[in-house]
Task: inverse folding
């Protein structure tokens, strides 16, 4: 098991190095269109072939990994922090605040987010750079993705408040911020971490779906989401299985994160 | 018990008889559920399909020859300088339910069609001016329809008018076309059965259509539609995109049909609305003919056709497609891809390229956004290619994909956009149908709609030419005027025409007598002549 975790760490290091050194490692610009070679099969020049516009898939995968590995966890972190603050406060303080927060999370979860996101995109200015567009997209996801996690954290905080450990701490004179900071928050960490890791692939896939609605990453910037859009057509990827590379990388990366995370949890 | 014993052999006999006289069934898919089965209210493609298969019309446009042919009317004559038309009706014709067809039904249909309360999209084509449409029944088999003002291409418009019965209790479900709607399972399928009273017969005297029934399965997913065709569950796909076509051509070349360039075009345009919330310097760029022509020349149309449409498209020249044999101005050629010439044109307006960035005379870097509808892969690819082409002359293009309602809101109400890339689906042979695009006062004059007076001299000229061609019935004079409009649009480029797509379709080897054409409906335009292989085998 130790070896598997070590392999996972090594894999993540390679992926991180690959995307950070994309400017050097990529054989071509992610935007350059080799128009005489659209949909080319893997070759020496194009390790993963080219896409429908003749862009080098390997280069796009490297740059896309950089975008998604930076921004999806950032959005997941934003959502987790919001969930921790809102859910943690509700669970710890209880009473009317908890009822109000729970009611608002119910409302939040029941809203038709897709339509709201479409409306938000329609209100945004059109002339924004692809980088600004992708940042806005992930920021929106982070701001909107807290409600589900907040319910889990609220329930866990409530459970902790009623535990013997907290009862003992209260009996010893601990209260207020000290009780929250020293006893509740450290015990919420595993749940928060789990919520964070669950959110990362969810946000990557949500970004891919939003791309179809025009909310995703703008051309020509690649992301895992925009690369996964190529898999919309079954007939396309069954004929060109190398198109599955972004999906394989996503699954491996998320799995490796989970393996490493389990180890950290044990240490905690 | 005795009764059951009697019924069982009877059931077997019925089943055996059914198998012996197997019914031929044509199957294909609709991309969505038809919004209406009332032929006068058709506005969407699935409803149009049902109307085409079931509706009986007075005259039918032959999609191959692009000429009108007699249908329920054996002859017709346009008079009154284009404001009246007299039809001589085919005798002894009955609706699908057996109700006799007469001139009264035509009068009733016209009355319903022109009823303002009905808001018939088909009727809109006949509304040339205010006033009542009159019908006059002459004898048993003739009817004259008089419109308040002349209508250009009046006879061709009747290709869209399915005749309703004035007396049938089934109302619009009683039809005169080759099929009638026998079953409609919402969201799943429609079953059309052969009209037993269809008037048309083949040369050997056999009643048409040959195929007994048509099943229209509602299927939104094109991938599944392709799989179903491969499995033999459906008989054709009326319209394919280039990706699917190429895959099919590689696997089963005998099933892939390219009918050549279609009537549809893909184009982009700049926002030239004076009151739009764009900065003044951008408005100045977009209203400059040199700027628009330079952008047009910097776009490699050949590459768009070759890469995005896999060679199944051709560089567009004009607002009339080359598929429109009569009205296309053959003297015009596509704008060449020449980035040096584009930079020279831009230099005339004071634009200069420095360090790979194009700047106007005031130093503003040339950057603008082009929006297109999200989910349309071909347009997204075109936008990405145009982005790279324009980078070659130092222009930074931001590609924005929006959901369709938001896009329409921006191009029709808020005018908060810079450039737009969209397509035009065109089924009408007569360019007069695009009057609502070319008149500067029109709401659909996309680059600068609803103008009180034409903003430019060339728009004034287009207005005059379009009005003059609509006022005459002399086809040659009309052709001259339309040619001139095409030349002005080619020169001024309010729309930058990019490509005309080819009409691609897939047809199973089981379906015979198929001659796909570029005009809709590409595959089943001769539905009453189509034959299934099983039917051929049985008749032998």
Result:
């Amino acid at each position: 098991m130790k070896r598997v975790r070590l392999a996972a760490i090594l894999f993540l290091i390679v992926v991180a190095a690959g995307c950070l050194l994309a400017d050097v490692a990529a054989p071509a610009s992610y935007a350059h269109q080799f128009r005489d070679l659209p949909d080319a099969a893997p070759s020496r020049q194009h390790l993963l072939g080219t896409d429908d516009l003749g862009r080098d898939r390997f280069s796009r995968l490297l740059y896309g990994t950089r975008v998604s590995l930076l921004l999806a966890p950032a959005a997941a972190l934003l959502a987790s922090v919001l969930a921790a603050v809102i859910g943690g406060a509700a669970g710890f303080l209880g009473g009317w605040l908890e009822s109000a927060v729970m009611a608002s999370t119910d409302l939040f979860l029941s809203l038709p987010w897709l339509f709201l996101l479409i409306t938000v995109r329609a209100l945004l200015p059109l002339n924004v750079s692809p980088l600004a567009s992708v940042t806005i997209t992930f920021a929106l996801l982070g701001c909107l993705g807290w409600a589900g996690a907040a319910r889990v954290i609220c329930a866990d905080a409530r459970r902790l408040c009623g535990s013997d450990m907290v009862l003992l701490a209260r009996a010893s004179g601990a209260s207020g911020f000290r009780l929250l900071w020293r006893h509740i928050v450290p015990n919420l960490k595993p749940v928060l971490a789990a919520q964070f890791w669950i959110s990362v692939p969810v946000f990557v896939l949500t970004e891919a779906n939003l791309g179809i609605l025009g909310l995703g990453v703008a051309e020509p910037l690649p992301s895992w989401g925009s690369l996964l859009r190529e898999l919309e057509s079954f007939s396309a990827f069954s004929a060109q299985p190398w198109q599955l590379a972004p999906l394989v990388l996503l699954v491996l990366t998320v799995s490796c994160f989970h393996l490493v995370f389990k180890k950290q949890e044990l240490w905690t | 018990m005795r009764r059951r014993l009697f019924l069982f052999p009877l059931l077997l006999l019925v089943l055996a008889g059914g198998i012996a006289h197997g019914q031929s069934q044509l199957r294909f898919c609709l991309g969505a559920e038809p919004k209406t089965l009332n032929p006068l209210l058709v506005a969407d493609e699935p409803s149009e399909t049902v109307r085409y298969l079931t509706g009986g019309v007075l005259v039918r446009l032959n999609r191959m020859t692009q000429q009108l042919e007699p249908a329920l009317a054996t002859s017709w004559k346009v008079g009154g300088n284009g404001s009246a038309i007299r039809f001589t009706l085919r005798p002894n014709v009955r609706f699908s339910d057996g109700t006799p067809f007469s001139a009264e039904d035509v009068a009733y249909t016209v009355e319903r069609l022109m009823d303002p309360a009905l808001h018939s999209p088909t009727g809109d084509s006949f509304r040339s001016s205010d006033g009542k449409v009159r019908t006059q029944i002459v004898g048993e088999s003739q009817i004259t329809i008089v419109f308040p003002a002349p209508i250009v291409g009046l006879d061709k418009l009747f290709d869209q008018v399915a005749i309703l019965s004035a007396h049938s209790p089934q109302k619009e479900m009683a039809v005169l076309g080759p099929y009638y709607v026998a079953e409609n399972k919402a969201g799943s399928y429609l079953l059309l059965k052969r009209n037993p009273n269809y008037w048309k017969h083949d040369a050997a005297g056999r009643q048409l259509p040959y195929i007994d029934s048509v099943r229209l399965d509602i299927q939104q997913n094109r991938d599944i539609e392709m799989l179903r065709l491969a499995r033999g569950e459906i008989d054709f796909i009326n319209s394919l995109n280039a990706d699917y076509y190429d895959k099919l051509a590689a696997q089963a070349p005998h099933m892939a049909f390219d009918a050549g360039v279609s009537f549809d075009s893909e184009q982009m345009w700049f926002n030239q609305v004076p009151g739009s919330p764009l900065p003044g310097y951008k408005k100045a760029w977009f209203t400059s003919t040199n700027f628009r022509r330079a952008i047009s020349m910097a776009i490699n149309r050949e590459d768009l056709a070759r890469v995005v449409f896999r060679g199944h498209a051709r560089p567009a020249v004009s607002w009339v497609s080359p598929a429109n044999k009569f009205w296309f101005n053959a003297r015009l050629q596509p704008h060449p891809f020449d980035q040096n010439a584009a930079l020279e044109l831009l230099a005339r307006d004071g634009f200069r390229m420095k360090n790979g960035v194009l700047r106007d005379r005031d130093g503003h870097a040339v950057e603008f956004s082009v929006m297109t509808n999200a989910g349309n892969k071909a347009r997204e690819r075109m936008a990405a290619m145009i982005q790279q082409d324009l980078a070659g002359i130092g222009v930074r293009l931001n590609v924005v994909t929006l959901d369709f309602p938001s896009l329409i809101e921006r191009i029709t109400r808020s005018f908060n956009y810079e450039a737009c890339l969209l397509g035009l689906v065109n089924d009408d042979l007569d360019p007069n149908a695009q009057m609502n695009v070319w008149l500067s006062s029109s709401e659909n004059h996309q680059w600068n709609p609803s103008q009180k007076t034409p903003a430019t001299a060339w728009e004034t000229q287009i207005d005059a030419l379009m009005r003059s061609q609509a006022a005459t019935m002399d086809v040659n004079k009309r052709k001259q005027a339309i040619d001139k409009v095409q030349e002005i649009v080619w020169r001024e480029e309010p729309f930058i025409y990019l490509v005309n797509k080819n009409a691609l379709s897939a047809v199973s080897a089981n379906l015979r007598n198929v001659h796909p054409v570029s005009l809709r409906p590409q595959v089943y335009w001769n539905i009453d002549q189509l034959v299934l292989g099983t039917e051929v085998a049985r008749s032998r």
Chain A has twelve helices and no strands. The two ends of chain A are 18 Å apart (CA to CA).
